[in-house]
Amino acid sequence: MPARFALPLALIPLLAACGGGGTAAPKVQSASAKPALTIPRPPARSGPPSARIQSAPGLEGVIGATPADLVRQFGAARLDVWEGDARKLQFAGDACVLDVYLYPASAGREPQATYVDARRGSDGQDVDRAACIAALRRR
């Protein structure tokens, strides 16, 4: 056999070994490789979180009130906004604007006031909530 064919014939077994068709060797993970990041699942919730109820002097009669109770105290609400099962009633007078936030105490129950916020109608600056409630009751 001529020498010019010897080299290509010697390379054929090497090239055949590089070709596909066989099973791939398993990848070996080095000891320094970090394991995949596992993000824990958040705990399952059984329902909406319970409402946190605001309490402060001067808010008696408003916190814990139902929408009907609030209308009896302040008259018709200027705004009545629903978001999911939460409700906001807004009452306004010359002295201030009062936002009352109501949430259901439990499933199927009427929402009750749990938080109030008060501000001046002219510039939106915060005012004392108890003073605003007293002013709106006097009108």
From TrEMBL:
* Source organism, top-level taxon: Bacteria
Record protein name field: Beta/Gamma crystallin
Enumerate the UniProt keywords alphabetically. Answer: Signal
* Record bears the keyword Signal: yes
Q: Where is this region: Disordered?
A: 30-56
Signal sequence annotation: 1-24
Decide whether keyword Signal is in the record: yes
